[in-house]
Amino acid sequence: MDKIQIAEKSFWVGKVDDRPVPFHRLILEKGTTYNSYLLETEKPTLIDTVDIAFGGEFVKKLSNIIDLNTLKYVVINHIEPDHAGALPALMNKAKNAVIVTTEKAKELLNGMFKLHNREYLIVKDGDTLDIGGKTLKFFETPYLHTEETMITYCVEDKILYPCDLFSTHIANHELFNDLAKEDITEDFKVYYQLIMRPHRPYVREMLEKLKTVEIDMIAPSHGYVLRDNAAKYIALYDEMSQKSVSDKKALIIYSTMTGNTGKIANNIYEGLTEAGMETHILNVKSSSIETVNEMAAASDVIIIGSSTRYGDMIGNIEDYIKEIIKLDLSGKCGFAFGSYGWSGEAIEIINDYLKKSNIKVLDSSTLIKATGANDVQLPLRINFYGDDERAEAAINAGRVAAEAL
After folding, report:
1. Distance separating alpha carbons of residues 1 and 19, to the nearest angstrom
2. Contacts of 303 by beta carbon, 8 Å cutoff, 6+ apart
3. Is the dihedral of CA 325, 327, 328, 331 positive or negative?
4. What angle do CA 73, 75, 78 make, to 5 degrees?
5. pTM for the whole thing?
């Protein structure tokens, strides 16, 4: 298992980890593999490394396969330690190698491994790299499953190197899916559900990018290389990432002082309806408690906002909230929002009320633990208002609420 050919001048040089593996607060009872690929072209190129625990072993093995001083490029698709963990040990030996990655990944790699003195080649979406006999094309795939992630495609071989995408967590010595001792479809689906499902919109964007290339083989970072019927596994991602919330309902209720919180409510409405969700928006100033209660009971998402005045909510929205949290809100989700001038206490008070109910409260802690993404901050606190990144943040919050279902 030191070196297995997957295409002309292209080899698997990874590591099989057949122990129960701790991973993302889980134990991988079937183990896993850390797949690294060596392209022995005129400009020898390595695509990803292995877990940090096997860094020394990996570099020693690789040095028996190739003179590391001749290694020209090391492509890092994703900076987590199970992919980039062996990079420091490798770069200590591969003195002439250039690290190929995204701008965000460079920042993170330097922070993690202190590689500031190494040469980087920063690539962006659609960029290509001639490695002497083969051409690599890169696609940025943010939040699949972290912000800096990209995937690599070999044009001549029609092989996709998608890092965590299309992976399975199975320790195996067969390497190729057509040699697997049992059907891997269920393991493939479980991996998607655990790792990729929270990032569904980004999966959809990735699939659109893949329509521009022809794929004969998928060589992911974990588990089997999919050389038989790669289209099947792309279709499974397409199927699993389809989502319809057209049968779901959302309710936004708010109280506003100068109109800014009302504008935020409209932006959240835009995000929810863009996701296909039937959404109602109510200003409590012109809606009865009975009406709001009835609509809250029939809604799947409940979002409540208020401006802040003298450290508190405004108007009589608190009376509405007290009635809503008396309802059975199990199976529903929601969050607090509002515009503020200098403090924004009203937003936190609403959030405290929601926590007293049995609704699933969407906040930054929940989102980070579920997806690792920190691009949406909840409760949604917007200083004054502007038709700029503040409006976009509110639209994104609506999208996030739809995804949370």
Report:
1. 17
2. 250, 251, 252, 253, 265, 268, 334, 335, 336, 337, 401
3. negative
4. 160
5. 0.80
Q: Which of 241, 274, 307 is the last residue of a domain?
A: 241
pLDDT band at 146 (very low <50, low <70, confident <90, very high): confident
* pLDDT of 260 higher than 90: yes
CATH number, domain containing residue 274 = 3.40.50.360
* Number of domains within the chain: 2
pLDDT mean across residues, the chain: 94
**pLDDT given at position 373:** 67
pLDDT exceeds 80 at position 227 = yes
Mean pLDDT for 362-372 is 81
Quote the domain boundaries for residue 296. Answer: 249-404
Distance CA 292, CA 12 (A): 60
d(CA 121, CA 99): 6
Q: What span, in angstroms and rounded, lies between the C-alpha atoms of 189 and 77?
A: 22
**What's the one-letter identity of residue 206?**
M
- Give the number of other CB atoms < 10 A from CB of residue 189: 16
| Same domain? 193 vs 297 | no
Q: Rounded CA gap, 74 and 148, in Å?
A: 16
Are both 319 and 178 inside the same structural domain?
Answer: no
Residue with tokens 């296909």: 276
Helix axes 317-324, 289-297, angle to 10 degrees: 40
Give the DSSP letter string of 268-336: HHHHHHHTT-EEEEEEGGGS-HHHHHHHHHT-SEEEEEE--BTTB--TTHHHHHHHHTTS--TT-EEEE
Q: Quick one: pLDDT at residue 26?
A: 77
Based on the fold, state whether residues 197 and 273 are members of the same structural domain. Answer: no
Structure confidence by residue, pLDDT tens digits, 96-142:
999 999 999 999 999 999 999 999 999 999 999 999 999 999 999 99
Q: Is 159 helix (H, G, I), strand (E, B) or coil?
A: strand
Q: Average pLDDT for residues 301-314, to the nearest whole number?
A: 96
Q: How many CB atoms lie within 10 A of CB 101?
A: 26
- Given 185, 207, 241, which residue is the final one in a domain? 241
**Does 265 lie in the same domain as 168?**
no
Residue 380: enclosing H or E segment and its boundaries? strand 380-383
Phi, psi torsion values for 29, nearest 5 degrees: -65, -30
